[in-house]
Amino acid sequence: MEWDELDKTAFSVGDLADQGNDLEYWLSRTPQERFEAIEYMRRVLYGNDPTAATFQRVLEVIDLSQS
């Protein structure tokens, strides 16, 4: 399933006090489906910025002094 294939109109509203079966549901999904759901939630929270889609690489140079 690709980002464009997600049905953004399918959702349900529930009460936070209700005990759901979220764990059972997610354990029944494939690892690929779980990853796609995480990626979808990340894009909803942080937007779809292509520059933020990659991991930031940091290089630090340390001067080693001889004793």
Please tag this protein with its features.
67 residues, mainly alpha, 0% strand, elongated
Short précis:
This protein has 67 residues and is mainly α.
Description:
This protein is an all-alpha fold and 67 residues long. The chain has one domain. It is 33% helix and 0% strand. It has helices at residues 22-27, 31-46.
Tell me the total number of β-strands: 0
Instruction: Work out the helicity level.
Output: 25-40%
The helix/strand order is HH
Query: How much is the average pLDDT?
Result: 78
How many structural domains can be distinguished in the coordinates? 1
User: What's the number of helices?
Assistant: 2
- Helix-strand category: mainly alpha
Topology:
Layout: H1 22-27, H2 31-46
